[in-house]
């Protein structure tokens, strides 16, 4: 039967599927089709599909054999996939257990089901988990053609930010010097290196840096990637006046590191500054903080993009400022 479908390359399939699922656009009555290296994901409302995705019409078979969690539960649970881990966020233990059982019984290829047991906490940005099924919190996550080995019990990683990471990486030039101040396991670092940049990633979580080094090897970019464990403020003097592009993805407290970012910046640099602010003025505080740090150091500040990343909490937005510093 002919249905509207989003067409993507196979390596982008899981990331796109997650985007469409979060937007409740996937049509679960029809199968996803794989042909000649491309995936066709049926959608219920083609007019609502993000404009950066390609919508086509093609013949797709009705779903007959695959059972989804909603088929078992009688309602559509909210979950996200990270490799072969499925993550849910339920306060009611009984409901969480029922959802986990349904996920395991369904056709979803899940080895582990985790329930968030705490918010992200501490300077290493990790959280507690309830393991509802399976026994491993380590998995391999694939995103826009890169692979990331990650253990969510020991490091911070959010598959929800895949689209935002891709937006930034698409701006990277092959001869850039790219510095990620809070690199984690490398979701910005690895694809930037694959774009041809020379990359430095720093994280205070030593386990995350171990995974970053492993991921650089896994993706064939170890020669162009430097991974450093430590507080970026104590190691930045090695890279003073070095960076062409700087990522500051620590939205609750990135402003505390702006002086370091300015020290890292070369004569001209783009800073991707992440912030969480009230919806009434989501960009103003970040812009003011950046100007206060950069202008006394002799930089002109140009705000190139004011970009909403996602809703973070009621009346709060996670946003990104793409800022060009020119000495």
Short descriptors:
327 residues, alpha/beta, Alpha-Beta Plaits, GMP Synthetase, Chain A, domain 3, Rossmann fold, 9 helices, 17 strands
Number of H- or I-type helical stretches: 9
In CATH's first tier, which class of the largest domain applies?
Alpha Beta
Please name the CATH topology of the largest domain. Answer: Rossmann fold
Q: Major beta sheet, specifics?
A: 7 strands, mixed
Distance between the termini: 59 Å
- Domain count: 3
Secondary structure tally: strands: 17
Which ranges are low-confidence, i.e. pLDDT below 50, for 5 or more consecutive residues? Answer: none
Mean pLDDT: 93
> CATH homologous superfamily of the largest domain - what is it?
Vaccinia Virus protein VP39
What letter string, H or E per element, gives the SSE order? EHEEEHEEHEEEEHEHEHEHEHEHEE
Based on secondary structure, the structural category is: alpha/beta
Roughly what fraction of the amino acids lie in strands? 25-35%
CATH hierarchy: architecture of the largest domain: 3-Layer(aba) Sandwich
Q: What would you call the shape?
A: globular
What is the percent of helical residues? 10-25%
Strand order of the largest sheet: 13-12-11-14-15-17-16
Walk me through the structure.
The protein has 327 residues and is an alpha/beta fold. It has 3 domains: 2-59, Alpha-Beta Plaits (2-Layer Sandwich); 69-136, Met-10+ protein-like domains (GMP Synthetase, Chain A, domain 3, 2-Layer Sandwich); 158-326, Vaccinia Virus protein VP39 (Rossmann fold), CATH 3.40.50. 24% of the residues lie in helices and 34% in strands. It contains 9 helices and 17 strands. The strands form 4 sheets. Strands 13-12-11-14-15-17-16 form a 7-stranded mixed sheet. Strands 2-3-1-4 form a 4-stranded antiparallel sheet, with helices on one face. The chain has a 4-stranded mixed sheet with strand order 5-6-7-8, with helices on one face. α6 links the parallel β12 (198-203) and β13. The relative contact order is 0.08.
């Amino acid at each position: 039967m002919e249905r509207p479908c989003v067409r993507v390359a196979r390596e982008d399939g899981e990331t796109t599927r997650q985007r469409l699922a979060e937007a409740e656009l996937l049509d679960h009555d029809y199968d996803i089709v794989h042909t000649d290296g491309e995936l066709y994901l049926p959608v219920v409302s083609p007019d609502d599909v993000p404009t950066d995705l390609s919508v086509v019409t093609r013949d797709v078979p009705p779903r007959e054999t695959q059972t989804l969690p909603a088929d078992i539960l009688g309602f559509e649970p909210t979950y996200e996939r990270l490799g072969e881990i499925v993550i849910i966020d339920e306060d009611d233990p009984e409901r969480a257990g029922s959802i986990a059982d349904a996920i395991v019984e369904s056709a979803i290829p899940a080895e582990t089901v985790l329930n968030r047991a705490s918010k992200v906490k501490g300077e290493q940005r990790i959280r507690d988990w309830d393991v509802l099924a399976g026994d491993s919190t380590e998995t391999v996550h694939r995103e826009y053609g890169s692979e990331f080995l990650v253990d969510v019990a020991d490091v911070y990683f959010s598959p929800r930010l895949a689209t935002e990471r891709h937006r930034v990486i698409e701006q990277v030039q092959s001869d850039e010097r790219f510095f990620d101040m809070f690199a984690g396991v490398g979701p910005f670092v690895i694809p930037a290196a694959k774009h041809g940049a020379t990359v430095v990633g720093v994280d205070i979580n030593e386990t995350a840096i171990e995974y970053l080094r492993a991921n650089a090897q896994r993706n064939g970019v170890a020669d162009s990637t430097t991974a450093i464990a430590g507080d970026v403020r104590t190691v930045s003097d090695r890279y003073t006046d070095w960076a062409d592009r700087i990522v500051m993805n620590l939205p609750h407290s990135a402003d505390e590191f702006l002086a370091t970012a300015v020290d890292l910046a070369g004569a001209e640099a783009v800073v991707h500054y992440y912030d969480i602010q009230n919806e009434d003025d989501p960009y103003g505080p970040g812009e003011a903080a950046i100007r206060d740090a950069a202008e006394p150091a002799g930089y002109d500040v140009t705000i190139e993009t004011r970009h909403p990343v996602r809703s973070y909490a009621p009346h709060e937005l996670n946003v990104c400022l793409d800022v060009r510093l020119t000495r």
